[in-house]
Design brief:
By secondary structure, the chain is α/β, with parallel strands linked by helices. Helix content is about 35%, strand content about 15%. It folds into 3 domains: about 240 residues, FAD/NAD(P)-binding domain, CATH 3.50.50; about 100 residues, Alpha-Beta Complex (Flavocytochrome C3, Chain A, domain 1), CATH 3.90.700.10; about 100 residues, Fumarate reductase/succinate dehydrogenase flavoprotein-like, C-terminal domain (Methane Monooxygenase Hydroxylase, Chain G, domain 1). Strands 6-2-1-10-17 form a 5-stranded parallel beta sheet, sandwiched between helices. A 4-stranded mixed beta sheet has the order 18-16-11-19. A 4-stranded antiparallel beta sheet has the order 12-15-14-13, with helices on one face.
Length: about 525
């Protein structure tokens, strides 16, 4: 590997090139920082694919307390109230910062950002760009800003495979291409690698988003939190392409209805109907599909010929699939979309490991609880990027010793996807989770390409097996009720492996007794 990593030694290193990573790098300026992206900036990130927008209480009829109330209601008892207050009050300033970095939000006639409505929001507070092209506009502006900033060294087409530890603290990281590896010395690492949707067959995330940052943190000994909570978006385009194109919640916010092949509305009797919390709508759609029906999003009456103007990106991929939303309903189905769990962090984005921070979807701040409120994810990344940058900048760089590294093969989740898709979907049960743990354990402790994806999936399965209730995005058919006391979950890799091994022994004993 020809890159001169010795010259970069000691600088903070950001792992991930989505909104959270780019914003953290910009917020750290003018301190020299390294940003490592596994793909060219602007590619293979969920931020790039985001459609809906960013929630902020900017309307004359809105305020942060209302935004907080909606967030907490959607979170189903598990939101950290202090974190919620912090984020919703910081939201308007985060929007202003994005504008300063060059983001061109859609504006109303009075020049203010135009505000959309999405599910479970009590006010119109979704700031968007290019109609449904918010993610593309964010990444365009932030990528340009990062490339212009002389203090940011961008390294593309490179993966971080391991964190090196020294006396319980981060000492550096192993970076690799497909055929070589090197060591970068640093005492400060920020993980901003996104979510875990790539562990599922049906997902709106890039297929390479399988939780690599979570694997890095877990192997280093960090505490992870709320891993069992995976949000499925109710309306991904029901077609063969992967990642599945998302039909934004904003379409339902403009009045589109969910119908079946007979034209009957399928959520008319649900409280909130099409704008009920995502987990409720997603399970309703899945139940209808399981009965042999098709499900469609019908925007013909409310948006009609204006659909392509309001939602140009959705109109374009529908056209590519042979669908005209102005004249016919859009076939949809649920898909893995967002992970509420992640690396447990505090209000400064610090993990339980010295020298390790996390930001964006890879982090678990407690903002989202058991079920993320729509358009709070980009907001969280933008707000916490500043908090993380301030914390990192206030930490002494320190010194660590270079380490010899061996080559680690690129991770491949292909063998993990069938297990995860079957056991960790919208509806879960104990036997399937137990089987998943048993199947994932040998993969997770191997040195094969599937080891890191299996490790992340194993921790999610263990957390889901432990939560014997249904809450938010986690639904157990064998425990359909909600527990009286809401408790967040925390898990280390050591604990997960111990639980998996105990489960394997227990299952073996049960099989012996049955025989």
């Amino acid at each position: 590997m020809s890159r001169d990593f010795e010259a970069l030694a000691g600088r903070p290193v950001i792992v991930g090139g989505g909104l959270a990573g780019l914003m953290t790098a910009l917020r750290l300026a003018p301190e020299p920082v390294v940003l490592i992206s596994r793909a060219p900036l602007g590619h293979e990130t969920s931020s790039q694919l985001a459609q809906g927008g960013i929630a902020a209480s900017l309307g004359s009829d809105d305020d942060p307390s209302l935004h907080a109330a909606d967030t907490i209601a959607a979170g189903d008892g598990l939101c950290d109230a202090e974190v919620v207050r912090y984020v919703v009050h910081a939201a308007p300033a985060a929007i202003d910062a994005l504008i300063r970095f060059g983001v061109d939000f859609d504006r109303s006639e009075d020049g203010r950002p135009s505000l959309g409505l999405e599910a479970a929001h009590s006010r119109r507070r979704i700031v968007h760009a290019a109609g449904d092209g918010t993610g593309r506009e964010l990444m365009r502006a932030l990528t340009q800003a990062v490339r212009r900033m002389p203090s940011i060294t961008v390294i593309e087409d490179l993966e971080v495979r391991r964190l090196a530890m020294e006396d319980g603290a981060v000492a550096g990281l192993v970076v690799a291409t497909t055929d070589s590896a090197a060591f970068l010395t640093t005492r400060r690492v920020i993980i901003a690698t996104g979510g875990i949707g790539g562990l599922f067959f049906d997902t709106t995330n890039p297929e390479s988003s399988f939780g690599q940052g979570l694997a890095l943190a877990a192997r280093a000994g960090a505490v992870l939190a709320d891993l069992e909570f995976v949000q499925f978006h109710p309306t991904a385009l029901d077609a063969s392409s992967r990642p599945m194109p998302l039909v934004s919640e904003a379409v339902r916010g403009e009045g589109a209805a969910l119908i079946d092949e007979t034209g009957r509305r399928i959520v008319a009797d649900v409280a909130g109907a099409e704008l009920a919390p995502r987990d409720v709508v997603a399970r309703a759609v899945a139940r209808h599909l399981a009965k042999g029906h098709r499900v469609y999003l019908d925007a013909r009456e409310r948006t009609g010929s204006a659909f392509a103007v309001r939602f140009p990106a959705i109109a374009a991929f529908c056209k590519a699939a042979g669908i005209d939303p102005a004249r016919e309903p859009i076939p949809v189905r649920p898909a893995a979309h967002y992970h509420m769990g992640g690396i447990a962090v505090d209000l400064a984005g610090r993990s339980s490991i010295e020298g390790l921070w996390a930001c964006g979807e890879a982090a678990c701040t407690g903002l989202h609880g058991a079920n993320r409120l729509a358009s709070n994810s980009l907001l969280e990344g933008a707000v916490f990027a500043r908090a993380v940058a301030e914390s990192v900048a206030g930490t002494h760089a320190g010194r660590s010793r270079p380490t010899q590294v061996g080559f680690l093969p690129p991770a491949n989740p292909a063998l993990v996807r069938p297990i995860v898709s079957a056991a960790l979907g919208l509806v879960r049960n104990g036997p399937d989770l137990t089987d998943a743990v048993a199947s994932l354990l040998p993969m997770a402790v191997s040195e094969a390409p599937e080891a890191d994806p299996a490790l992340v999936a194993l921790m999610v399965a263990v957390a889901a097996r432990r939560r014997r209730e249904s809450r938010g995005a986690h639904f157990r058919s064998d425990f359909p009720s909600k527990a009286a006391i809401a408790r967040r979950s925390h898990l280390t890799l050591e604990q997960a492996l111990e639980a998996a091994q105990e489960s394997a022994v227990e299952t073996k004993h049960i099989l012996v007794r049955s025989a």
